[in-house]
Sequence to fold (265 residues):
Amino acid sequence: MLEFKNVFKSFHNEEETIDVLKNISFRMETGEFVAIIGPSGSGKSTLLGVAAGLDKPDTGIVSLDGIDLTKQNESKLADIRADQIGFIFQNFQLLPGLNAIENIGIPLYLKSSLTEKEILKKAESILESVSMSHRATHFPKQLSGGEEQRIAIARSFVNDPKIIFADEPTANLDYKNSKTILDLLLYRNKKQGTTLVVVTHDPDVAKLADRVLEMKDGEIISDSKNGLKKSKNQSPSNTKKSISTTSKTTTKQKQVVKPTKKVSR
Ligand SMILES: Nc1ncnc2c1ncn2[C@@H]1O[C@H](COP(=O)(O)OP(=O)(O)OP(=O)(O)O)[C@@H](O)[C@H]1O
Ligand SMILES: [Mg+2]
Fold:
């Protein structure tokens, strides 16, 4: 349902051109949970932005359910994002002038069919699912990092997307907050069939995925699924890392955990 074909992207400044995505091709099926790992600067966030239609590649095809995102204008892309995509940014990107409940409602405000009342009702129920009802009217600067993260996650759920892209959703969180966030994402993936693409540095998060794509210097250097691995330019150290990432995935680890209603502070 999500397919990259020969995708290239570079950033240019006055002195140099940085090739960030170099001939990326892969296909992801509906309902898959895919982790993207790799060193800082390897192109993970760029790939996620391109996959969600937030950014355009220089060349190549990015197809979501058969629609090539690279061929759509901004207005059509905004519609696709509002209807089908949830995105959790690496640095949250909450709007500072809006309180928690209003931030969660943003994707719904972009959908003109809903009334203000309907939007607030939906946002409130999602707020409760991330145990944040007690902070509904707080502004981002009045929230802790973990609380901001939970609001960002709630915002990505509010339009019931069929695919969620999460960029380091558990970075900078303590164990308890990480677990809450992961449980919520896993619940969406396993119970509601939402496709999940998670960029992570955390091996514990990658272990939970059905499949792990490893990036290095703008390329996918390995693709591991259920212990089977396809690799490109594979070095022995990468092989070891990649195999261990998936081979340790047990049925127990993949069990669905319902989102907790407990408030974590
Ligand atoms: N808008 C931009 N202009 C210029 N260079 C950019 C831009 N965005 C990203 N880059 C460069 O592209 C490369 C890949 O960046 P990207 O954010 O995709 O990496 P990443 O794998 O997500 O890293 P991290 O793990 O640190 O988040 C980096 O070298 C970065 O400096
Ligand atoms: Mg990044």
